[in-house]
Hints:
Largest interface: A-B, 36 and 38 residues
Number of strands of chain A: 5
Radius of gyration of chain B: 23 Å
Low-confidence stretches of chain B: 1-43, 56-90
Order of helices and strands of chain A: EHEHEHEHEH
Low-confidence stretches of chain A: none
Number of strands of chain B: 12
Radius of gyration of chain A: 13 Å
Mean pLDDT of chain B: 77
Structural class of chain A: alpha/beta
Oligomer: heterodimer
Amino acid sequence: MVSPGRVAVVDDDANTLRAISRLLRVCGIEPSSFASAEDFLASGTVGRVTCAVIDVYLTGMSGIELRLRLSSLNPSLPVIFMTGAIDDATREQALAAGCVAFLRKPVEGHMLLDAIKQAG
Amino acid sequence: MTSLAAKLTARLRMLTREPAGRIEAGAGRLSASQPCPGEGRPQALRRWASDLREDFMTETAACKRSAAASGLGRTAVACAIVAVLLGLQPAGAEEMGATRIMKAMSDYVGSQKTISLTFDSDIEVVTPELQKVQFASSGKLLLSRPDKLRVTRTGGYANVELLFDGKTVIIYGKNLDVFAQIDVPGATTDDLVDRLRSGYAFDAPGTDLLLTSSFETLMADVIDVKHIGHGVVDGVECEHLAFRNEDVDWQLWVEAGPRPIPRKYVITSKTVAGAPQYTLTIRNWQSEIPGGAEAFAFKPEVAVRRVEPRELTNLDEVPEGRPMGGSK
Lengths: 120, 328
Protein backbone atom coordinates (compact mmCIF):
# COMPACT_ATOMS: atom_id res chain seq x y z
CA MET A 1 0.00 0.00 0.00
CA VAL A 2 1.39 3.35 -1.02
CA SER A 3 0.92 6.36 1.21
CA PRO A 4 -2.58 7.76 0.68
CA GLY A 5 -3.25 10.97 -1.11
CA ARG A 6 -5.01 12.09 -4.23
CA VAL A 7 -2.96 11.80 -7.38
CA ALA A 8 -3.96 13.59 -10.58
CA VAL A 9 -3.68 11.59 -13.78
CA VAL A 10 -3.79 13.54 -17.06
CA ASP A 11 -3.94 11.64 -20.35
CA ASP A 12 -6.00 12.32 -23.45
CA ASP A 13 -6.43 8.64 -24.26
CA ALA A 14 -9.50 7.48 -22.35
CA ASN A 15 -8.35 3.88 -22.08
CA THR A 16 -4.91 4.81 -20.79
CA LEU A 17 -6.53 7.15 -18.31
CA ARG A 18 -8.76 4.34 -17.06
CA ALA A 19 -5.94 1.80 -16.90
CA ILE A 20 -3.54 4.07 -14.99
CA SER A 21 -6.30 5.24 -12.65
CA ARG A 22 -7.38 1.67 -11.86
CA LEU A 23 -3.82 0.60 -11.25
CA LEU A 24 -3.56 3.37 -8.67
CA ARG A 25 -6.92 2.45 -7.13
CA VAL A 26 -6.00 -1.14 -6.45
CA CYS A 27 -2.84 0.14 -4.81
CA GLY A 28 -4.84 2.30 -2.43
CA ILE A 29 -4.36 5.62 -4.16
CA GLU A 30 -7.43 7.63 -5.13
CA PRO A 31 -6.87 9.11 -8.59
CA SER A 32 -8.36 12.26 -10.03
CA SER A 33 -8.57 11.63 -13.76
CA PHE A 34 -8.46 14.32 -16.43
CA ALA A 35 -8.61 13.99 -20.21
CA SER A 36 -6.73 17.24 -20.83
CA ALA A 37 -4.47 19.79 -19.22
CA GLU A 38 -7.27 22.31 -19.52
CA ASP A 39 -9.67 20.05 -17.59
CA PHE A 40 -7.13 19.63 -14.80
CA LEU A 41 -6.44 23.35 -14.54
CA ALA A 42 -10.17 24.13 -14.48
CA SER A 43 -11.01 21.46 -11.91
CA GLY A 44 -10.01 23.44 -8.86
CA THR A 45 -7.96 20.49 -7.61
CA VAL A 46 -4.48 21.67 -8.58
CA GLY A 47 -3.80 22.81 -5.04
CA ARG A 48 -5.22 19.69 -3.45
CA VAL A 49 -3.43 16.85 -5.22
CA THR A 50 -0.21 15.45 -3.85
CA CYS A 51 1.28 14.44 -7.18
CA ALA A 52 0.47 14.68 -10.89
CA VAL A 53 1.06 11.94 -13.46
CA ILE A 54 1.02 13.64 -16.86
CA ASP A 55 1.27 12.39 -20.43
CA VAL A 56 3.78 14.49 -22.38
CA TYR A 57 1.79 14.56 -25.62
CA LEU A 58 -1.65 15.84 -24.73
CA THR A 59 -4.23 17.19 -27.15
CA GLY A 60 -4.39 20.94 -26.66
CA MET A 61 -1.96 22.17 -24.02
CA SER A 62 0.98 19.76 -23.92
CA GLY A 63 2.21 18.03 -20.80
CA ILE A 64 5.36 20.17 -20.79
CA GLU A 65 3.27 23.35 -21.03
CA LEU A 66 1.05 22.07 -18.22
CA ARG A 67 4.14 21.47 -16.07
CA LEU A 68 5.26 25.04 -16.61
CA ARG A 69 1.79 26.33 -15.64
CA LEU A 70 1.79 24.18 -12.52
CA SER A 71 5.14 25.66 -11.53
CA SER A 72 3.39 28.94 -10.82
CA LEU A 73 0.11 27.52 -9.49
CA ASN A 74 1.52 24.87 -7.17
CA PRO A 75 5.33 25.10 -7.19
CA SER A 76 5.85 22.18 -4.82
CA LEU A 77 3.66 19.74 -6.76
CA PRO A 78 5.74 16.75 -7.87
CA VAL A 79 5.18 15.76 -11.49
CA ILE A 80 5.73 12.39 -13.13
CA PHE A 81 5.83 12.39 -16.92
CA MET A 82 4.90 9.43 -19.07
CA THR A 83 5.19 9.12 -22.83
CA GLY A 84 5.27 6.69 -25.70
CA ALA A 85 7.88 8.81 -27.47
CA ILE A 86 11.43 7.55 -27.37
CA ASP A 87 13.46 10.52 -28.54
CA ASP A 88 16.06 12.19 -26.36
CA ALA A 89 14.75 15.65 -27.16
CA THR A 90 11.40 14.92 -25.49
CA ARG A 91 13.13 13.50 -22.46
CA GLU A 92 15.41 16.52 -22.18
CA GLN A 93 12.44 18.88 -22.48
CA ALA A 94 10.57 17.01 -19.75
CA LEU A 95 13.55 16.96 -17.41
CA ALA A 96 14.19 20.65 -18.05
CA ALA A 97 10.57 21.47 -17.21
CA GLY A 98 10.96 19.59 -13.94
CA CYS A 99 9.81 16.13 -12.94
CA VAL A 100 10.58 13.47 -10.37
CA ALA A 101 10.36 10.71 -12.97
CA PHE A 102 10.06 10.21 -16.71
CA LEU A 103 8.32 6.93 -17.50
CA ARG A 104 8.12 5.31 -20.88
CA LYS A 105 4.88 3.66 -22.00
CA PRO A 106 3.91 0.95 -21.48
CA VAL A 107 4.10 2.16 -17.91
CA GLU A 108 5.41 -0.41 -15.43
CA GLY A 109 3.20 -0.38 -12.34
CA HIS A 110 6.03 -0.78 -9.85
CA MET A 111 7.98 2.05 -11.45
CA LEU A 112 4.97 4.35 -11.26
CA LEU A 113 4.39 3.49 -7.61
CA ASP A 114 8.06 3.96 -6.79
CA ALA A 115 7.95 7.37 -8.43
CA ILE A 116 4.85 8.35 -6.46
CA LYS A 117 6.52 7.19 -3.24
CA GLN A 118 9.57 9.25 -4.15
CA ALA A 119 7.33 12.24 -4.84
CA GLY A 120 5.70 11.89 -1.42
CA MET B 1 -6.23 16.50 -54.88
CA THR B 2 -5.47 19.81 -53.30
CA SER B 3 -7.09 18.56 -50.14
CA LEU B 4 -4.85 15.51 -50.11
CA ALA B 5 -1.72 17.60 -50.55
CA ALA B 6 -2.86 19.93 -47.80
CA LYS B 7 -3.60 17.02 -45.50
CA LEU B 8 -0.17 15.50 -46.08
CA THR B 9 1.50 18.81 -45.40
CA ALA B 10 -0.50 19.39 -42.24
CA ARG B 11 0.22 15.89 -40.97
CA LEU B 12 3.94 16.27 -41.62
CA ARG B 13 3.97 19.58 -39.80
CA MET B 14 2.13 18.08 -36.85
CA LEU B 15 4.41 15.07 -36.58
CA THR B 16 7.65 16.95 -36.99
CA ARG B 17 6.39 20.01 -35.13
CA GLU B 18 7.79 22.17 -37.87
CA PRO B 19 6.31 25.61 -38.46
CA ALA B 20 4.36 26.30 -41.60
CA GLY B 21 6.64 26.89 -44.54
CA ARG B 22 9.33 24.41 -43.56
CA ILE B 23 7.49 21.48 -45.11
CA GLU B 24 5.75 21.66 -48.42
CA ALA B 25 3.87 18.88 -50.12
CA GLY B 26 4.06 20.82 -53.39
CA ALA B 27 1.72 19.10 -55.85
CA GLY B 28 1.81 16.00 -53.74
CA ARG B 29 5.58 15.51 -53.82
CA LEU B 30 7.63 14.91 -50.72
CA SER B 31 11.14 16.22 -50.82
CA ALA B 32 13.83 13.54 -50.69
CA SER B 33 15.68 15.63 -48.15
CA GLN B 34 12.68 15.70 -45.80
CA PRO B 35 13.44 13.59 -42.73
CA CYS B 36 11.15 10.70 -41.98
CA PRO B 37 8.01 12.21 -40.42
CA GLY B 38 7.61 11.42 -36.77
CA GLU B 39 11.12 10.03 -36.50
CA GLY B 40 11.36 8.36 -33.13
CA ARG B 41 7.59 8.15 -32.97
CA PRO B 42 6.80 4.95 -34.84
CA GLN B 43 3.17 4.84 -33.77
CA ALA B 44 2.55 8.29 -35.17
CA LEU B 45 4.35 7.32 -38.35
CA ARG B 46 2.20 4.22 -38.76
CA ARG B 47 -0.93 6.29 -38.33
CA TRP B 48 0.30 8.80 -40.87
CA ALA B 49 1.14 5.99 -43.28
CA SER B 50 -2.26 4.39 -42.75
CA ASP B 51 -3.98 7.69 -43.45
CA LEU B 52 -1.86 8.11 -46.52
CA ARG B 53 -2.82 4.68 -47.78
CA GLU B 54 -6.48 5.41 -47.17
CA ASP B 55 -6.21 8.73 -48.97
CA PHE B 56 -4.32 7.10 -51.81
CA MET B 57 -6.99 4.47 -52.26
CA THR B 58 -9.74 7.02 -52.14
CA GLU B 59 -8.02 9.29 -54.59
CA THR B 60 -7.16 6.42 -56.93
CA ALA B 61 -10.75 5.27 -56.95
CA ALA B 62 -11.82 8.81 -57.71
CA CYS B 63 -9.38 8.93 -60.61
CA LYS B 64 -10.86 5.83 -62.13
CA ARG B 65 -14.31 7.30 -61.94
CA SER B 66 -13.31 10.62 -63.34
CA ALA B 67 -12.88 11.39 -66.99
CA ALA B 68 -10.43 14.07 -65.96
CA ALA B 69 -8.00 11.60 -64.52
CA SER B 70 -5.06 13.18 -66.28
CA GLY B 71 -5.36 16.26 -64.13
CA LEU B 72 -5.08 14.20 -61.00
CA GLY B 73 -2.30 11.89 -62.01
CA ARG B 74 0.67 13.70 -60.56
CA THR B 75 -0.38 13.55 -56.93
CA ALA B 76 -1.63 9.98 -57.21
CA VAL B 77 1.73 8.91 -58.61
CA ALA B 78 3.53 10.80 -55.88
CA CYS B 79 1.39 9.10 -53.27
CA ALA B 80 2.08 5.72 -54.81
CA ILE B 81 5.82 6.40 -54.65
CA VAL B 82 5.57 7.39 -51.01
CA ALA B 83 3.48 4.31 -50.28
CA VAL B 84 6.07 2.07 -51.92
CA LEU B 85 8.89 3.82 -50.04
CA LEU B 86 7.04 3.15 -46.80
CA GLY B 87 6.59 -0.49 -47.69
CA LEU B 88 2.84 -0.19 -47.91
CA GLN B 89 0.53 -2.32 -49.94
CA PRO B 90 -2.93 -1.27 -51.03
CA ALA B 91 -5.58 -2.33 -48.53
CA GLY B 92 -6.68 -5.90 -49.13
CA ALA B 93 -10.09 -7.49 -49.18
CA GLU B 94 -9.60 -8.34 -45.51
CA GLU B 95 -9.33 -4.69 -44.54
CA MET B 96 -12.12 -3.56 -46.83
CA GLY B 97 -14.35 -6.34 -45.48
CA ALA B 98 -13.75 -5.32 -41.89
CA THR B 99 -14.46 -1.68 -42.68
CA ARG B 100 -17.65 -2.63 -44.51
CA ILE B 101 -18.89 -4.75 -41.59
CA MET B 102 -18.03 -1.99 -39.15
CA LYS B 103 -19.96 0.54 -41.24
CA ALA B 104 -22.94 -1.79 -41.54
CA MET B 105 -23.02 -2.19 -37.77
CA SER B 106 -22.80 1.55 -37.24
CA ASP B 107 -25.57 2.25 -39.74
CA TYR B 108 -27.84 -0.44 -38.30
CA VAL B 109 -27.36 0.56 -34.66
CA GLY B 110 -27.61 4.24 -35.49
CA SER B 111 -30.94 3.67 -37.20
CA GLN B 112 -32.52 2.10 -34.12
CA LYS B 113 -34.80 4.56 -32.34
CA THR B 114 -34.83 2.59 -29.11
CA ILE B 115 -32.46 -0.07 -27.85
CA SER B 116 -32.69 -2.31 -24.82
CA LEU B 117 -29.90 -4.69 -23.81
CA THR B 118 -28.13 -6.35 -20.93
CA PHE B 119 -24.38 -6.67 -20.59
CA ASP B 120 -21.54 -8.24 -18.68
CA SER B 121 -18.24 -6.45 -18.34
CA ASP B 122 -14.83 -7.57 -17.11
CA ILE B 123 -12.22 -5.01 -16.19
CA GLU B 124 -8.70 -6.29 -15.86
CA VAL B 125 -6.08 -4.71 -13.65
CA VAL B 126 -2.44 -5.75 -13.79
CA THR B 127 -0.88 -5.22 -10.38
CA PRO B 128 2.66 -3.92 -9.90
CA GLU B 129 3.60 -7.57 -9.31
CA LEU B 130 2.16 -8.33 -12.79
CA GLN B 131 -0.76 -10.33 -11.42
CA LYS B 132 -3.85 -10.04 -13.58
CA VAL B 133 -7.11 -9.56 -11.69
CA GLN B 134 -10.53 -9.17 -13.31
CA PHE B 135 -13.44 -7.26 -11.81
CA ALA B 136 -16.79 -8.47 -13.17
CA SER B 137 -20.04 -6.52 -13.40
CA SER B 138 -23.43 -6.89 -15.05
CA GLY B 139 -25.95 -4.32 -16.11
CA LYS B 140 -28.71 -3.24 -18.42
CA LEU B 141 -29.25 -0.32 -20.75
CA LEU B 142 -32.25 1.42 -22.26
CA LEU B 143 -31.70 4.05 -24.93
CA SER B 144 -34.30 6.19 -26.70
CA ARG B 145 -32.95 8.53 -29.35
CA PRO B 146 -32.34 11.35 -29.42
CA ASP B 147 -32.08 12.23 -25.78
CA LYS B 148 -32.88 9.53 -23.24
CA LEU B 149 -30.64 6.95 -21.62
CA ARG B 150 -30.72 4.70 -18.58
CA VAL B 151 -27.82 2.45 -17.61
CA THR B 152 -27.40 0.33 -14.50
CA ARG B 153 -24.22 -1.47 -13.53
CA THR B 154 -23.86 -3.80 -10.58
CA GLY B 155 -20.50 -5.21 -9.56
CA GLY B 156 -18.82 -6.54 -6.47
CA TYR B 157 -18.00 -3.10 -5.15
CA ALA B 158 -20.50 -0.66 -6.64
CA ASN B 159 -24.11 -0.50 -7.74
CA VAL B 160 -24.57 2.50 -10.00
CA GLU B 161 -27.32 3.92 -12.17
CA LEU B 162 -27.17 6.70 -14.75
CA LEU B 163 -30.33 8.41 -15.95
CA PHE B 164 -30.57 11.01 -18.66
CA ASP B 165 -33.86 12.58 -19.69
CA GLY B 166 -32.62 15.16 -22.17
CA LYS B 167 -32.23 17.86 -19.54
CA THR B 168 -30.33 16.42 -16.63
CA VAL B 169 -28.00 13.55 -15.88
CA ILE B 170 -28.42 11.72 -12.62
CA ILE B 171 -25.62 9.50 -11.37
CA TYR B 172 -27.00 7.42 -8.53
CA GLY B 173 -24.72 5.45 -6.24
CA LYS B 174 -27.22 2.87 -5.04
CA ASN B 175 -24.82 1.26 -2.63
CA LEU B 176 -24.03 4.63 -1.08
CA ASP B 177 -27.52 6.18 -1.22
CA VAL B 178 -26.16 9.30 -2.87
CA PHE B 179 -26.71 10.94 -6.22
CA ALA B 180 -25.33 13.80 -8.25
CA GLN B 181 -27.26 15.83 -10.77
CA ILE B 182 -25.73 17.59 -13.74
CA ASP B 183 -27.75 19.90 -15.95
CA VAL B 184 -27.17 19.30 -19.66
CA PRO B 185 -30.01 21.13 -21.41
CA GLY B 186 -30.30 20.39 -25.10
CA ALA B 187 -27.87 17.49 -25.01
CA THR B 188 -28.44 14.31 -26.99
CA THR B 189 -27.46 10.77 -26.08
CA ASP B 190 -24.53 11.14 -28.47
CA ASP B 191 -23.38 14.24 -26.58
CA LEU B 192 -23.70 12.40 -23.30
CA VAL B 193 -21.70 9.40 -24.50
CA ASP B 194 -18.97 11.81 -25.53
CA ARG B 195 -18.95 13.39 -22.08
CA LEU B 196 -18.94 10.01 -20.35
CA ARG B 197 -15.49 9.32 -21.75
CA SER B 198 -14.05 11.56 -19.08
CA GLY B 199 -15.14 13.75 -16.29
CA TYR B 200 -18.10 11.76 -14.98
CA ALA B 201 -17.93 9.19 -12.23
CA PHE B 202 -19.70 6.70 -14.50
CA ASP B 203 -17.47 4.81 -16.83
CA ALA B 204 -19.09 3.13 -19.84
CA PRO B 205 -16.69 2.69 -22.76
CA GLY B 206 -19.09 0.35 -24.58
CA THR B 207 -21.57 3.16 -25.11
CA ASP B 208 -19.40 4.28 -28.03
CA LEU B 209 -20.97 1.40 -29.95
CA LEU B 210 -24.41 2.97 -29.60
CA LEU B 211 -23.62 6.36 -31.10
CA THR B 212 -25.71 7.43 -34.08
CA SER B 213 -22.49 7.36 -36.13
CA SER B 214 -20.20 5.08 -34.17
CA PHE B 215 -18.16 4.33 -37.31
CA GLU B 216 -16.65 7.80 -37.46
CA THR B 217 -15.86 7.90 -33.75
CA LEU B 218 -14.44 4.42 -33.39
CA MET B 219 -12.44 4.49 -36.63
CA ALA B 220 -11.03 7.99 -36.16
CA ASP B 221 -7.60 6.96 -34.86
CA VAL B 222 -7.41 3.44 -36.27
CA ILE B 223 -4.06 2.56 -37.85
CA ASP B 224 -4.69 -1.10 -38.73
CA VAL B 225 -7.81 -3.09 -39.59
CA LYS B 226 -8.31 -6.84 -39.88
CA HIS B 227 -11.22 -9.14 -40.53
CA ILE B 228 -10.02 -12.07 -38.46
CA GLY B 229 -12.85 -14.37 -39.53
CA HIS B 230 -15.77 -15.81 -37.65
CA GLY B 231 -16.57 -16.52 -34.04
CA VAL B 232 -19.54 -17.57 -31.97
CA VAL B 233 -20.76 -15.43 -29.07
CA ASP B 234 -23.64 -16.70 -26.94
CA GLY B 235 -24.32 -19.32 -29.61
CA VAL B 236 -24.64 -16.72 -32.36
CA GLU B 237 -22.27 -16.60 -35.35
CA CYS B 238 -20.38 -13.34 -35.54
CA GLU B 239 -17.88 -11.56 -37.73
CA HIS B 240 -14.64 -11.08 -35.80
CA LEU B 241 -12.89 -7.76 -36.44
CA ALA B 242 -9.61 -6.47 -35.01
CA PHE B 243 -8.39 -2.88 -34.97
CA ARG B 244 -5.25 -1.15 -33.80
CA ASN B 245 -4.92 2.38 -32.48
CA GLU B 246 -1.77 4.02 -31.22
CA ASP B 247 -2.58 3.33 -27.56
CA VAL B 248 -5.05 0.43 -27.73
CA ASP B 249 -5.92 -2.65 -29.72
CA TRP B 250 -9.62 -3.47 -29.88
CA GLN B 251 -11.72 -6.31 -31.18
CA LEU B 252 -15.36 -6.45 -32.08
CA TRP B 253 -17.67 -9.36 -32.75
CA VAL B 254 -20.62 -8.32 -34.92
CA GLU B 255 -23.61 -10.62 -35.43
CA ALA B 256 -23.53 -12.15 -38.91
CA GLY B 257 -26.60 -11.79 -41.09
CA PRO B 258 -29.26 -9.14 -41.47
CA ARG B 259 -28.98 -7.76 -37.92
CA PRO B 260 -25.34 -6.55 -37.54
CA ILE B 261 -25.34 -5.71 -33.85
CA PRO B 262 -22.28 -5.70 -31.59
CA ARG B 263 -22.06 -8.86 -29.47
CA LYS B 264 -18.64 -8.58 -27.86
CA TYR B 265 -16.09 -5.80 -27.49
CA VAL B 266 -12.56 -6.15 -26.14
CA ILE B 267 -10.21 -3.22 -25.56
CA THR B 268 -6.54 -3.89 -24.79
CA SER B 269 -4.51 -1.02 -23.35
CA LYS B 270 -0.97 -1.08 -24.70
CA THR B 271 0.28 1.83 -22.64
CA VAL B 272 0.28 -0.04 -19.33
CA ALA B 273 2.54 -3.01 -18.63
CA GLY B 274 0.70 -6.31 -18.85
CA ALA B 275 -1.76 -4.89 -21.39
CA PRO B 276 -4.93 -4.95 -19.26
CA GLN B 277 -8.18 -5.62 -21.10
CA TYR B 278 -11.76 -4.48 -20.88
CA THR B 279 -14.30 -7.02 -22.11
CA LEU B 280 -17.95 -6.26 -22.78
CA THR B 281 -20.46 -8.92 -23.78
CA ILE B 282 -23.85 -7.69 -24.97
CA ARG B 283 -26.98 -9.80 -24.60
CA ASN B 284 -30.75 -9.56 -25.01
CA TRP B 285 -30.62 -6.83 -27.66
CA GLN B 286 -34.08 -5.52 -28.48
CA SER B 287 -35.01 -2.65 -30.77
CA GLU B 288 -38.10 -0.57 -31.32
CA ILE B 289 -39.51 -1.25 -27.89
CA PRO B 290 -41.80 1.16 -26.05
CA GLY B 291 -39.88 3.46 -23.71
CA GLY B 292 -41.91 6.30 -22.27
CA ALA B 293 -40.47 9.24 -20.36
CA GLU B 294 -41.23 7.54 -17.05
CA ALA B 295 -38.65 4.88 -17.85
CA PHE B 296 -35.96 7.54 -17.51
CA ALA B 297 -37.27 9.29 -14.40
CA PHE B 298 -35.28 9.25 -11.18
CA LYS B 299 -37.35 7.47 -8.53
CA PRO B 300 -35.12 6.19 -5.74
CA GLU B 301 -36.74 3.60 -3.49
CA VAL B 302 -34.89 4.80 -0.39
CA ALA B 303 -33.91 8.15 1.08
CA VAL B 304 -30.95 9.52 -0.82
CA ARG B 305 -28.60 12.44 -0.40
CA ARG B 306 -27.54 14.77 -3.17
CA VAL B 307 -23.82 15.44 -3.50
CA GLU B 308 -21.63 17.38 -5.85
CA PRO B 309 -20.42 15.35 -8.85
CA ARG B 310 -16.81 15.55 -7.66
CA GLU B 311 -17.89 13.96 -4.37
CA LEU B 312 -19.03 10.82 -6.17
CA THR B 313 -16.28 8.37 -5.42
CA ASN B 314 -16.12 4.63 -4.94
CA LEU B 315 -18.49 4.02 -7.85
CA ASP B 316 -15.90 2.42 -10.06
CA GLU B 317 -15.93 -1.28 -10.84
CA VAL B 318 -12.44 -1.44 -9.37
CA PRO B 319 -12.35 -0.79 -5.62
CA GLU B 320 -9.82 1.38 -3.87
CA GLY B 321 -7.25 -0.75 -2.08
CA ARG B 322 -6.41 -4.30 -2.89
CA PRO B 323 -9.13 -6.81 -1.94
CA MET B 324 -6.89 -9.73 -2.74
CA GLY B 325 -6.34 -11.41 0.57
CA GLY B 326 -2.96 -12.34 1.94
CA SER B 327 -0.19 -14.11 0.17
CA LYS B 328 1.33 -17.40 1.26
